[in-house]
Specification:
The chain is about 50% helix and about 15% strand. The chain has 2 helices and 2 strands; from the N terminus they run ββαα.
Length: about 70
């Protein structure tokens, strides 16, 4: 994870209202969040497979179906 360099926008009392990040840091944060969401989705699917709630298709069957 890259080091972040936030700048805070504050109200007259010094309370933080917003944050500004360099675009590269923002994009890195978004990518990390998307990767974590993908990991959570994959774990949920694996758990459903283990419980027998999802059907799997053997790779050989997929290749044969698509002529690979």
């Amino acid at each position: 994870m890259p080091e972040l360099h936030p700048q805070f926008l504050t109200d007259p009392d010094g309370n933080r209202l917003s944050v500004v990040l360099p675009i590269a840091e923002y994009e890195a944060l978004i990518e990390r969040l998307e990767n974590l969401e993908d990991l959570e989705d994959a774990r949920e699917v694996l758990a459903r497979i283990e419980r027998g709630e999802e059907e799997t298709i053997p790779w050989e069957a997929v290749k044969a179906e698509h002529g690979l």
